[in-house]
Specification:
With 360 residues, the chain is of the alpha/beta class. It contains ten helices and 21 strands. The strands form five sheets. Strands 7-6-16-17-18-15-19 form a seven-stranded mixed sheet, with helices on one face.
Length: 360
């Protein structure tokens, strides 16, 4: 089957979904493709900062997201010896230290808003297998597979919003530079005890960071840094001593931790790296979010950077001038901002232990 639209967006995460909505609102015909059968797949970067919040408010979307359910973080605590020793409170003008928004809540609002416009359409369970080029070497669409059926989407612009392992970036042969950070991350989720305050809590286990992020709907997300590449060896060791360290750091979690985390299988491994791309696009292709600048989980910048990319790219796209989009304009504006954030991430990672000097 053949389709023709102005813009084809690959990846229905927050960045791709927001871009689809903003373009549809401008009467740009847009087709949003997602390789999974449904949105809201497993996702752990769900914290909005004030920049992400501002973007949603500017486009009249935040109130709907809040109705779906979110949770504002009221404080950041550093813990040592099972007790907090340092507390950071939010700037009163901001009112929080991040907002947990379940991805399914955010995506449902963005996609429902986009569906109000006839210029928007979407396809789930659709995997891009090839970018289409004309005789001049310009990209003009994609070839994709959906339920075993091949389809061709012809468009003026292909946007890769398909994450850290972006198919669009690879198919467009856009070079990326990978930086390893010396650690990987174990994620787990446990029910929060009664009266658990909306907060972020940090501890130091050995020389590695352990973080707790309160989530909406009564959960706590655990993020535990481990030595890069160490998980295969780690999971061959006894499980209980590892968990004992978590309980020792946060004693009030003992019951819920031991009930909810009973084997290595209850952790999800994230191999941590950041990336930069020399180009943010190439002859009819544009990239946003992790597809062009993968962020580490440190500081929870990834989601917000993706929303900013989408917002800025949408501002550059005019229905009648899509083919003349200058990707360098987007890159020049956003690249410096992203570089600064990635530098902040590195600094935070390298200096994290200094937060505990007084406690130790």
């Amino acid at each position: 089957m053949n389709y023709k639209v102005d813009v084809c967006i690959v990846g229905a995460g927050p960045g791709g979904a927001l871009l689809a909505y903003l373009l549809a609102k401008k009467d740009v015909s847009v087709l949003l493709l997602e390789q999974h059968a449904a949105v809201g797949k497993a996702f752990r970067g769900e914290h909005l900062n004030e920049e992400g919040e501002t973007i949603l408010k500017e486009h009249g979307l935040f109130e709907q997201v809040e109705k779906q359910g979110l949770l504002r973080m009221e404080k950041l605590e550093y813990w040592h010896g099972g007790k907090p020793f340092k507390t950071i409170l939010p700037d009163p003008q901001i009112g929080h230290l991040g907002i947990h928004v379940p991805q399914i809540h955010l995506l449902s609002v963005l996609l429902e808003a986009a569906e109000e416009y006839p210029s928007y359409s979407s396809m789930m369970n659709t995997k891009v297998v090839e970018l289409l080029k004309d005789e001049s070497g310009n990209y003009h669409g994609v070839r994709a597979m959906r339920d075993g059926e091949e389809m061709v989407i012809d468009c003026q612009l292909v946007v890769g919003a398909d994450g850290r392992y972006s198919t669009v970036r690879k198919k467009a042969e856009i070079e990326t530079t990978i930086r390893k950070h010396g650690f990987d991350l174990l994620w787990a989720r446990i029910p929060a005890p009664d009266n658990w305050e909306p907060s972020i809590r940090m501890a130091l286990i050995g020389d590695k960071q352990l973080s707790l992020f309160t989530q909406a709907k009564g959960y706590i997300q655990i993020g535990w840094n481990i030595e890069e590449g160490s998980f295969p060896k780690l999971r061959k060791q006894p499980f209980t001593p590892f968990i004992d360290q978590l309980v020792e750091a946060f004693p009030e979690l003992e019951e819920t931790v031991r009930d909810s985390i009973q084997s290595w299988k209850d952790f999800v491994l994230l191999d941590v790296f950041s990336s930069t791309s020399k180009s943010w696009g190439n002859k009819g292709v544009a990239l946003i979010g992790d597809a062009v600048h993968t962020m580490t989980p440190t500081g929870a910048f990834g989601l917000n950077s993706s929303l900013k990319d989408a917002d800025f790219l949408a501002s550059l796209i005019d229905k009648n001038l899509i083919s003349k989009l200058n990707n360098m304009e987007c890159a020049n504006q956003r690249k410096l901002e992203v570089e600064k954030l990635q530098a902040i991430q590195i600094e935070k990672e390298q200096t994290f232990a200094l937060n505990f000097v007084v406690a130790v």
